[in-house]
């Protein structure tokens, strides 16, 4: 596939590695193992700095993953629908319940996460926060990583800014 040199200039290089493997015909499978990570483990303010500088949202945008947000976070779409057609309020209730149930099932049964299992009812609020971060990702082409500022190109590569 070209080794790490082929992906070193890309934001979301994990996506690019999978894409390169698929293009070669090697196939891509998802692991059945749950990988622990630190996203969300640091204080709220630190998480929001990472989210709001656009790094995560712009990485998803650069590789065409924005369309899927409508399906993974349906609550903002339901809220917008209710703003336009208030009589459709039951859709909002169903979307909120479905998302909360999905959050509880994922955290409790798949990840065995006691914190999220206990706070599953906050999932709709997370959807709204994710939606705001998603919207912010549409604006701007710069990212900040470890104190350095980069320009994000249309193809997902990034360049250090002077």
In terms of topology, how is this protein built?
Layout: H1 13-24, H2 44-52, H3 55-62, H4 69-72, H5 74-84, H6 89-110, H7 114-118, H8 123-136, E1 142-145, E2 148-152, E3 158-160
Antiparallel strand pairs: 1-2, 2-3
Helix pairs in contact: 5-6
What does the model show?
With 162 residues, the chain is mainly alpha-helical. Helix content is 52%, strand content 7%. The chain contains 8 helices and 3 strands, in the order ααααααααβββ. The chain has helices spanning 13-24, 44-52, 55-62, 69-72, 74-84, 89-110, 114-118, 123-136; strands at residues 142-145, 148-152, 158-160. It has a 3-stranded antiparallel β-sheet with strand order 1-2-3. A hairpin with a 2-residue loop joins strand 1 (142-145) and strand 2. Helix 5 (74-84) runs antiparallel to helix 6 (89-110). The radius of gyration is 18 Å and the shape is globular. The two termini are 31 Å apart. The relative contact order is 0.14. The model has no long low-confidence stretch (mean pLDDT 79).
